[in-house]
Amino acid sequence: MKVGQLGEFELINRLKEILKSELIGDDTAPIKIQSESTLLLTTDTMNEGIHFLSNYLPEAVGWKAISVNVSDIVSNGGYPEWVLISLNIPEDLENSYVERLYKGIDRACRFYKCKVIGGNIAKLEKISISVFVLGRTERFVGRKGAKPGDSLFVSGTLGDSRAGLELILMNKKEYEPFELALIERHLKPTARIDYVKHIQKHANASMDISDGLLSDLWHLSERSSVKVEIFSEKLPISKELKLFCEKYGKNPIDYALVGGEDYQLLFTHPKSSWNPFLDMTEIGKISEGQGVFVDGKLAKPKGWRHF
Amino acid sequence: MKVGQLGEFELINRLKEILKSELIGDDTAPIKIQSESTLLLTTDTMNEGIHFLSNYLPEAVGWKAISVNVSDIVSNGGYPEWVLISLNIPEDLENSYVERLYKGIDRACRFYKCKVIGGNIAKLEKISISVFVLGRTERFVGRKGAKPGDSLFVSGTLGDSRAGLELILMNKKEYEPFELALIERHLKPTARIDYVKHIQKHANASMDISDGLLSDLWHLSERSSVKVEIFSEKLPISKELKLFCEKYGKNPIDYALVGGEDYQLLFTHPKSSWNPFLDMTEIGKISEGQGVFVDGKLAKPKGWRHF
């Protein structure tokens, strides 16, 4: 059935059923904050045709819409708590699409331990999902604060998401297992919620890598007023990305430097705060000065831009 | 210049300049909440072609995008504090349009005493503005809580916005002064922030009238499990709406009952809590039972639906 036939209130009822949230039903969602912790607010959007295609699994789109927002909260050292969703959809969209989208949202919220407490649905030609997340931290860690002498770290591996997107756009009939793994990393990124305590305790500066490493390093350098040096041979490359680059004649370093949407963390602290239980890699160092240098050469900011 | 030529970061810099917000610049916006008050969260969207037309003044669109959200906070007895904006725009939109939109947003935020602390900009074929507001109250008042014996009140006058919209759609070369007043009420509604203390102190149930009185009365009746009776001769009609209805042969009661987007408040409390300094009108009463009755007859929910 199309959402236009189902009607707004019936659609909302079905989504409430999926989310099992008792807080939905008033003009605002009331919440109680007991302690004096810092609240973190963020919003990010997924637009059809720009951030996802209409043939993507709606569950994955819902998962990703939550994950990219949680990634922002996590990168500043916080845990996500409350979620609002502003959903814009065409009238002739199948309501099963919306319900599957919300199943993905619900799955992500249960994984990250946050809760959808409100939202809004409106009509638009294309699907546009704006998610708002309210998180909490005992200590806010932002892009400002990187100190000369700090080492620079990233979580996980870089460049996988970009390779996954290129593979999707190849529209192949069959994919090899390593290709499917890269595609999954693009479609279903996981915010690094396992790093929250480490960031809160140790990081002097932190952000997530969403636009691409180089572009995000420039943000860090400018906000912290420091020089950032990285070494390309230290960049963490997955074995799947290596296989991809061998097969298609690409350079994995390019993918790691400018491929966006990895949703890994970029943070700085003294080398001594290294945590062997996390998949963190030291990729460079912070010193006095300005600019971003790769293997000793000044690098231009390059990466994903919305315009 | 088109936003596609200006570039994302330069556009964001100009908007930060307009908003004068130092909090913008990290993955999340950190805020400190000192007391143990209840936080109110809400989101609402304005979509081009659905909620506004491309020839509306961008300042008015920005003003309204904030006002409709503040109205939700106010209706639950709260003051707005923090605002995030998720803006979706086409690449070929003039950046002056976006700057004027943000001037309207800034003017509204200063009027309501809240602050934009973050947001996101993404590409989309049509303009879509999702606003997220975080407010605070000492006492949350929602749709549930109306008590048998309560009187039912509304703020201001009803039906003006709908008449204003119809006048805009007539696309006339010249408008009479009362017509311009109605048009202004549609384009630039004001959230009833002057009612916050009254709602907080006295109301047993409260909501804003956005979909239309009848539709919203049904929400109140269902959430409070009470019978709602109103009397059409008591509905507050502006002199401008009366002139409009005389000129075009319409019935003002219809406009007051089903015209949406008035952003007036609908609330219940004992008659004794009447406040002579507010423009409130008693339009009916709450009793045991269920359903919504107008002049003794059961009324169907009717009003604006998104689908």
Percent strand of chain A equals: 25-35%
Terminal Cα separation of chain A, in Å?
A: 36 Å
Main β-sheet description of chain A: 7 strands, mixed
Number of strands of chain A: 12
Mean pLDDT of chain A: 93
Of all chain pairs, the largest interface belongs to:
A-B, 68 and 68 residues
Helix and strand run of chain A: HHEEHEHEEEHHHEHEHHEEEE
What class, by secondary structure content of chain A?
alpha+beta
How many separate structural domains of chain A?
2
Indicate the percent of residues in helices of chain A.
25-40%
Please tally the helical runs of chain A, counting DSSP H or I stretches of 4 or more residues. 10
Helix/strand layout:
The structure is a homodimer of 307-residue chains.
Chain A: H1 3-6, H2 8-19, E1 29-32, E2 38-47, H3 58-75, E3 79-89, H4 95-112, E4 115-123, E5 128-137, E6 151-155, H5 160-170, H6 177-187, H7 196-202, E7 205-209, H8 213-224, E8 227-230, H9 239-248, H10 252-258, E9 264-269, E10 280-287, E11 292-294, E12 297-298
Parallel strand pairs in A: 3-4, 8-11
Antiparallel strand pairs in A: 2-5, 3-5, 6-9, 6-10, 7-9, 8-10, 11-12
Helix pairs in contact in A: 2-4, 3-4, 5-6, 6-9
